[in-house]
Amino acid sequence: MPILHTEAITLRRRRGREADALVTLFTRRAGKIIASTRGVLKTTSRYAGVTQPFNHLNVILYAKVQEQEIWTLTQVSLVESFDAVQGDLKRIAWASCLAEWIEAFSGDFESNLAVWDLLLDTLRGWNRREPTEEELIQCQWRLLVSAGLQPNLHHCHRCGGRESSAWYYLPADGCLACAACVHQGLRLGHGAIQALRRMTGPAPAPLIRLTPQQKNEIRRLLLTHVEYHTGVRLRSPLFLEQLDF
Predict the structure, then answer these.
(1) Count of domains in the chain?
(2) What is the number of other CB atoms lying within 10 angstroms of the CB of residue 26?
(3) Could you tell me the residue range of the domain that residue 19 belongs to?
(4) Which of 65, 67, 64, 72 is nearest to 35 (CA)?
(5) pLDDT tens-digit map of 154-205
(6) Are 9 and 54 in contact (CB under 8 A)?
């Protein structure tokens, strides 16, 4: 009967039967785990506030067998809460976007300290200061790199060239073609591609400022690439678009 004692961050909480809830946790020791929390939605539950999204926790989880799909949360204590994130609509929206990406790319019980550090550092940073869209984009890109799902943006898929006034992203190939080789696909300016190239590698370049056009181009590239290659229909881009941040 496996018992796991680990740090965790709540990614999502959804209603189960009656006052029970299912909590999606990203844990330091075992990656993503879905846990059942009995009676947590009752007003008298001592875990009601602790298990809300974007809290840093210490948890003890129990399962009859290691391969069990849903574990049971038996004990939980708060390490730190990110009150500024939880109390601000923009920060909640962007943190939810990040959480959705982590859920999409993380297999159950697959430890990933790089993703753990990225999530914890990002929440701490956004709790101290107003987040920027460049930060969100860089987090999304680092998640793609961590999952081995990033598109190939180093050169033209057809001729091998690295410079072009405009590029076209080809979803089926997961790479770029220059404007001299193709005239169809998702069009991107050279500035957007250069910015993403600078984010790639073991030591990403410091965050750079993006123009509104570059942000829009990168958003469309990331959404097209992720949905095409994972089959996951992401909800957060539509949510962010409706909020118009």
Answers:
(1) 2
(2) 23
(3) 3-83
(4) 72
(5) 999 999 999 999 999 999 999 999 999 998 899 999 999 999 988 876 555 5
(6) yes
Q: How confident is the model at residue 82 (pLDDT cuts 50, 70, 90)?
A: very high
Contacts of 49 by beta carbon, 8 Å cutoff, 6+ apart: none
Q: Which of 188, 174, 185, 180 is nearest to 160 (CA)?
A: 180
Q: Are residues 149 and 230 in the same domain?
A: yes
Q: Which two tokens stand for residue 27?
A: 């844990």
Q: What is the pTM assigned to this prediction?
A: 0.89
- The pairing of beta strand 152-156 with beta strand 70-81: unpaired
Q: SS3 of 95, please?
A: helix
- 55 and 146 in a common domain: no
Per cent of the chain over pLDDT 90 is 63
- Residue 38's domain is classified under what CATH number? 2.40.50.140
